[in-house]
Amino acid sequence: MRRTRGFTAVALSAMLLMAGCGANAADDSDDAGGAGKGGKLTVLSASTDINFDPAKSQNLAITTLGLVLRRLTTWDIQPGKTAQVVPDLATDTGTASDDGKTWTFTLKDGLKYADGTAITTADIKYGVERSFAAELSGGLGYHKGLLIGGDTYQGPYTGGDLASIETPDDKTIVFKLKAAYGDWPWIASMPAFTPVPKAKDDPKAYSQNPVASGPYQVSSYQQGTAVTLTRNPNWDAATDSVRTGGPDEVVFQLGQDATVAAQRLIADSGDDRDAFGAGFVPPAQLAQIEQNASAKQRLVTSDAGALSYLALNTRRGALKDVKVRQAIQYAVDKSAYQVATGGAAGGDLATTLITPGIPGRAEYDLYPAGESGDVAKAKQLLAEAGQTALSLTLLSENDQQSLAEAQAIQQGLQRAGITVTIKPADETTVTDTLTGDKPDFDIAVSSWQPDFPSANGNIQPLFATSEIGGGGYNISRYSNAEVDRLIEQALATTDPAAAQALWAQADKRILQDAPVVPLKYNKNSFLHGSNVQNFFVAAFPAYPNYLKVTLKNR
Amino acid sequence: MVVDIPPPELARHPLRQLASDRWAVAGGATIVVFLLIALAAPLLSGLEGHDPYTYDLDAVSDTGAPLGFGGGISVEHWFGVEPMTGRDLFAIVVHGARTSFLVGFAATALAVLIGVAVGLTAGYLGGWYDRLVSRFIDVLFGFPWLVFVIALGAIAPADLPKQLLIILVIGLFGWPGIARVVRGQTLALKQRTFVVAATALGAGPGHLLRHQYLPNLTSTIIVYSTMTIPGMIGAEAALSFLGVGVPPPTPAWGRTIGDAVGWVQTDPMFLVFPGTALFLITLAFNLFGDGLRDALDPRTRGLKR
User: Fold this and answer.
1) Structurally, how many domains does chain B consist of?
2) A407, B244: Cβ pair inside 8 Å?
3) What is the pLDDT confidence band of residue A35, given thresholds at 50, 70 and 90?
4) What chain A residue is nearest to B85 in terms of C-alpha separation?
5) Which of these, B42, B65, B38, B53, lies nearest to B89 by C-alpha position?
6) What is the CATH number of domain A307-522?
7) Mutate to test the interface with A, among B58, B61, B84 (most CBs of A within 10 A)
8) Are A546 and A63 in contact (CB under 8 A)?
9) In this complex, do A422 and B258 lie within 8 Å of one another by their Cβ atoms?
10) Per residue in B117-157, pLDDT tens?
11) Which residues touch B110 (CB under 8 Å, ≥6 apart)?
C-alpha cells in the first residue's frame, strides 16, 4: 500500500520521451561491472523521518529499507525489463504445495546480520509475527488476511506465536494460507518478511536502530536532519543478486524542500554532484530544466505508472447518489489537472483503475467526456438527481502542488454548477482524515502506486470493504458485496490469466458505481547529480532503484 | 505622546504638518490608490476582460509555463498569466488587494478595539485586574501564534469562512501591543492635573474614561492603528504563503508569492507583480503612519527628517 505523495509531474521533450526507457539505460549503463565502488551518496528527501521498522514500513523493496534490510524475496528491477520477484534471503521464490495453500522457503547458506550472528528462519517468523501487533501497525499488511489465524492474531507481545508459520529448522520456513494465493512470492518481498532477532527487538527503538542484513547499517540517526548508513561488514555480495552496494556511505538529508532540492541538483555543485532527489521534481523546476541542457541530461522520468484519482466519499450526503457521482465523472476537467501537474509529459489521462503496465489491464472509458469534461452531460445528470446547488468540500494537503491540483478540480466542477470549497490541512491531518474512522470530507485528490505489479495491488487496497477506515486506503468508503466477492474470487484464482480477467471485470464494475474519478497515470521525474550513475526508473515501480545506484570514481 | 492641547486646534495643525511631509503624502496617496483598486477590482479586471478564476490552458505551454514574453504579458493579459493554470495575473493581483485590505483592516479594527478596551481599563482600574491583564499580555506576547494558527486551521470546521477565522485569529493575537501602549498612556494621564481635578469634582468612571482619557488617547490610537495595518496585511500574506491562509482560489498575494517562488527562475514576473504590490502597500502604510505620528506627536513635531 503506498499513497504516492509530493510532486507528480514532468516535462520532457518529445525526443527524450520517445527514447523512453532507452534513454535511462544509455545514459547510465556504462558502468555495469564492479567499478563505481566507494564514495558518499547523498539522498535529498522531503520526509522528516525514515521509519526503519519493517513492521511499520510501507517502503518499496528497491528504496531506502532495501539498503539495510533483506527480505525472503525481493524485486529485480532493471531498466527496460519487467519487474521480477527474485530470491533474497531464500534460495528460491518459494515452493507451493499442490493445493497452493502451503509455501515453503529455504534460506541461503552463510547469511549473517551486521553483528555477525546467523540469520535464521525463526527471526523471519518473528518479524512477520510482530507486524500483527497493534503498536506496530501502519505497515503493508497483505499477508495478514492470508495467513491462517491472521485475522485474530494479536502479535507476539500479547498473542504468543502464530501457528500458521512453521520453522522446522533454522533454514526452513513454511507459511500456511487460508486459500491458494498465486502472488505469495511477491507478498514475501514485503518489509514484514525481514528477519528480526527477538533478543534485539525493542518496538519503540527499532524504527531508528534496526538489525541490518543488507549492505548497509544505520550508523547515525538524527531525527528531522539526517540518517547516515555505513557498510555492513558481514554482508556478502555473493549471496545477493540485486544489491550493488556501491557507495561506502549513504546519507539521507531529511526535511528538504522539494523546490530547494531540485535547485541544488540543477546547480550540481560540490557534494550535490553525488546526490539524487528522492522526491518528484516540481513542475516549476521541470520547466526550468527544459532550458538547461546539463540538468536535462540528469532528469529521469518514469513510464505512466501510479494512478491519480479523485476520491468521492460515497457515504456523504449527495454523494451517496450514484447519479451525482457519475455527474462528477463528466464535470471534472482532467486536462486542467494534467497541466497543474506539469503538463502532458506529467502523465497520461486516465479512464481505468488498473494502471498501464499491469498484466491483464483492459482499456475502456465508461464516461467518455473528452479531455476537459462534458459539462452539459454533467448538468443533465445532476438535474436528474435533483441536485441544483451541490456544494462539496475538497480536502487537500496545504502544499502548493496539492493546492494547484485541488484548484484544477475545483474550477472543473464549478463549470457544472458544483460549488467546491477547498479545505487545506497538513499532510498528517489529511492522511488521518482520509484513512481514519472520521472521514470528514466529501472529495479528495489522491494517488496510488501498487505495491506489486499485479492488478490486485490496484483494486483490493482501494475498493475492498475491509479497507475502509482504520488506516485503510478505501478513501471513498466504497462498499459493494458484488465487488468484494469478485476480489475474493480473483485473489483465490491461481491461474494468472483467469485472475487477470476477474480483476479487469472488477475494475469496470467498480467504475460503474463511480466511487472515484480516474484522473491521470502519473509519470514521475527524478533528478540526480552528475557523479551519480546507474540511476534509472523502470516500468514498475515508478521510483528509482536505490539498490543499484553507484558513484563515478573521481 | 501626551497631548493636552484642545481638540479643535489639534485637528488643524497636524493636518498641515502632515501635508508638508512629502513621504507621508506619497504613502497616503498610494494607500488611496490601492484602496480604489481593491474596491473596483471586478471593474478593473472586467475592463481587461478576465476574472481571477477562469483557466486558460491555451496561454500556457505543454509544461505549464506561460507562453510569451515576461510570463505572457500582452494586450490580452496585462501582467501575464499564472503558470500551470493560465489564469490572468492582473485579475489575481487586483482581487488580491481586496483580501489584503479586508483582512488588514478588519483584524486591525478588532485588535484596536480589544487593545484599547483592555489597556484603558487596566490602566484606569489598576490593582489585581491590572496585574492579571499585564501577565496575560506577557503570555500572549510569548505565544507561538503562527503554530497555533496552523493547528487551528486543521481543526476548524470547513463551513466556517477561512477569511473570518484569519481575521479573528490575527486580531485576537494582535491586540497586546496596543493594550500595553494604551495602558501606559492611561497610567500617565491618571497623574495629570485635569484628570485629578475632574476626579476631585466627583466625575464618575464613565465620564472620566470618555471625556478625559479617550480624547487624549486618540492620536496614539490613530497612529498605532495605522502602523498595525501593514503588520496585519503581512501576517495574512505570511499565512497564505504557508498555505494556511485564505484558501484557494480566492486570490491572495501571499499565496501567489508562495507559488511564484518555485517559478522565479523560469517566470520571474509571476513573483514581481504580487511582490511589488505587497511591498508598496506595506511601505505606504508605514510612511503614512510615520508622518501621522510626527504630525500628532508634539515632541517630534517640527523635526525635519
Assistant:
1) 1
2) no
3) low
4) A340
5) B53
6) 3.10.105.10
7) B84
8) yes
9) no
10) 999 999 988 889 999 999 999 998 888 888 888 788 777 77
11) B167, B168, B171, B172, B174, B175
